[in-house]
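Reviewers of the previous submission asked for a worked example of the structure-prediction workflow described in the proposal, so we include one complete record here. The input consisted solely of the amino acid sequence. No template or homolog information was supplied to the procedure at any stage.
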Amino acid sequence: MSLPSTQIPTIAAADLPEPRAGRRPVPVWLILLLFLLLYWAMVYFDQRSGWFDQNVYIPFTSIQEVAKFQPVLSGADELILRGKQLYSANCAVCHMENGIGNPANGCPPLDGSEWVLAPGPARIIRIVSKGLQGPIEVKGTVYNTGTMLAIGDAMPGDEKQKSESIAAIISYVRKTFGKNASAVTPEQVLKVREEIKDHSGYFTPDLLKGVPETP
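From that input alone, the workflow returned the following structure tokens.
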């Protein structure tokens, strides 16, 4: 039986107790959970962070450990590896990483090029050292290269260091795009660069054709 609305008792706001702020203890399980999370975070950081060194990556935990497992390279391997890095930084924008060139920009291919396959590196040393200007024929196709910059002369360091960088680039190109052609030594590069030290401007294909292939 329901009472009429006029008979339902009401409670005035003044009759209610005033709300008060109080304190309740933090549950022990919550404190333990927070401690476990912090401990897990510290262990995870210690095992996987590599202490913020960008050269350290899973599963390694320090740069010393990364260095320990690096392959041991011979002198020739180091030369090719450095040449690959220099090629990517200075040559790949035109000749592409795979050496096929970019005909749309007049960049001839290096892969299978007779200029790369030459028995001796005297001509290619000149090209890399001083640059190249003018149309060049590669594998029966003429490429209007415009101007290839003097990458060798622009290399940092003294003449010895420049020659080492040039030798590395050419050795990588000859090995990768020249059917595993022989490497080039810094001494060969130094000899050629001594011969052309007074040469001003870029080389042209016609001028290079008169140069003996063997330095």
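Residues 27-68 form one domain. We consider this example representative of the routine output the project will generate in years two and three.
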